[in-house]
């Protein structure tokens, strides 16, 4: 093997990077048998830890990074407030980084953190993120990562999320109760765990109410606004157009409103809409928007608290921390409920 690092050791041993890192440091959390396996392979492959990286990690920057896909979504604007509050209480600075929903941008940002610029990271992944090597590499330098909202389910790290599947079931059932029979879900990404949980709830609700449930009822949108407008226009122009729409992210709501108005489709008489949104404008839209509202502030206060325990409390294992908070369905005029 050409370049030996903790990641390559972990791959060879079929262990997580975190386990290998702790084994090399003789952590009490790792069994003697596992430590022996790790040390034997490290010796065999002549693994030499990076002393520069280690020395950097002994120095504290009193700074955490928050990596977000965007801030146009009001959820993330509210989230930042919760993070800032906890950071200030602990005397830390907060640096905000935007990936603009791009995996390569996210990868470049996280690679820069490996030089010790930050002591910990709060992260909501981009809609393109599938490979996780850039995240796992941070653990080689003992930089804790806590996920919130958009998480990587497979990675052994703390995750603070909401009850996405259950609330999506509730939102779909609400549309059925309001008389909808042809409901579609507007999706933002095939890769995001949060999106897939919402789709699962949507499909379970259709089945529970004995309504048709097919792959065609999930419309795969993207980060391209022009393409999204085209897809939504095509959806609303087709014969047998939907009478109910669930917008899986906030930015897909406005195109539905705008195109419906242009095509003279009355909301809510002919089309009812539910949007996953924390926007303060939802109650004053015309008609006011029925929303699934996430506890963004509380979620990110909890995520930040977990991160600080991981950074400051010796022996705390952040991957053992999983928190699921409850979102709220707020019926308004867009589903025919007077607000």
Note the main attributes of this structure.
339 residues; alpha/beta; six-stranded parallel beta sheet; 12 helices; 42% helix; elongated
Write the layout of secondary structure elements.
Layout: H1 6-13, H2 17-24, H3 32-44, H4 51-58, E1 63-68, H5 74-89, E2 93-98, H6 103-113, E3 120-123, H7 133-140, E4 145-148, E5 159-162, H8 164-177, E6 183-187, H9 193-208, E7 218-220, H10 225-237, E8 244-247, H11 253-262, E9 272-276, E10 290-293, H12 296-312, E11 322-325, E12 328-330
Parallel strand pairs: 1-2, 1-3, 3-4, 4-5, 5-11, 6-7, 6-8, 8-9, 9-10
Antiparallel strand pairs: 10-12
Percent helix among the residues?
A: 40-55%
- Kindly provide the radius of gyration, computed on alpha-carbon positions and rounded to a whole number of angstroms: 23 Å
Structural class: alpha/beta
Largest sheet entry: 6 strands, parallel
